[in-house]
Every structure is written in C-alpha cells, then in structure tokens.
Write a structure and sequence with these properties.
CATH topology of the largest domain: SH3 type barrels
CATH class of the largest domain: Mainly Beta
Structural class: alpha+beta
Largest sheet: 7 strands, antiparallel
Radius of gyration: 21 Å
Distance between the termini: 69 Å
Helix content: 25-40%
Number of helices: 2
Strand content: 25-35%
Number of strands: 7
Order of helices and strands: HEEEEEEEH
Length: 150
Amino acid sequence: MDVIVSIWLLVGFILCCFAAIGKLGHVIRRRTEHPINPEPRQNYQTNLLDTSIRPDNLEFVTPGEATNHRITDNIQFMIEYVDRDGVITERVIEPLNIYRIAGKATIYIDAFCTVRNAMRSFRNDRILSARDMQNNQEIANLGRYLWERY
C-alpha cells in the first residue's frame, strides 16, 4: 500500500514539474515576442516596490476623500510602460479618468491606448517616462501631473 502511495506522489510531483516548465516556457515566449515588434524586449530589472528608486511620495487616500477625477481635455502622452511581467512598451495614450483606491498610494490612469486600440488602465508607478505630445514636454510623474491638474 505504501508503495502505491509513493508512486502516486512521485507521478504527481513529475506532473507538477512539467506544468511549471510549460508555464515558464509561456512566460519566456511572451517576454520575447511582441505583436507589434517581434524583436526581444528589454526587461525592467528594478523592484517596482522599492520607493527609493521611483519615489512617488504620495499620501494615502482616506475612504472619505474623492478618489476619481474625469479628464476633460483631449490630450495625448507618449509613455514608456512596464507591465507586471516586466515587459517594457512604448504607447501613445489619451487619458480619460484618473483614480486612487482608498487606503493605497497608487494612482491609476484609465486611457485609450492607440497601440492596442482599446481602453487600458495604467499604474502610475509602472510608467517609466511620459511626454506630452502637444508641446513635447517631458512629464516627470504623469499620475501626479494629471491628479493635480484635474
């Protein structure tokens, strides 16, 4: 009986290893292939949670504060964005809404992405650089810039 249980445990372990290897292969392919630009993308190596590298110094939002701002101007920004997998892309976005979740410091930007031709949400702490397309001005912190402007 113990031999059968041991065999089943070994088979389960082997299947888990195959699943992990398959997932790793999928992640590697996803990081190196891009639908617009098939060349391998640069990976963002910095820890996104390390505020000494990308300090936002934002105060936390309390539940009673207004946390949602509508952007009324037709403005476009060229941004360099790192997704949760570490893939960096350049995008042109048209922000429509900016918000913060109660109890968190992160600013989120809902925008129309011209690269994906769809609505997307962007975390401010993942925007590496931003440039106003109208006047070609570099914006150091797009989330704070939009939050204070609207």
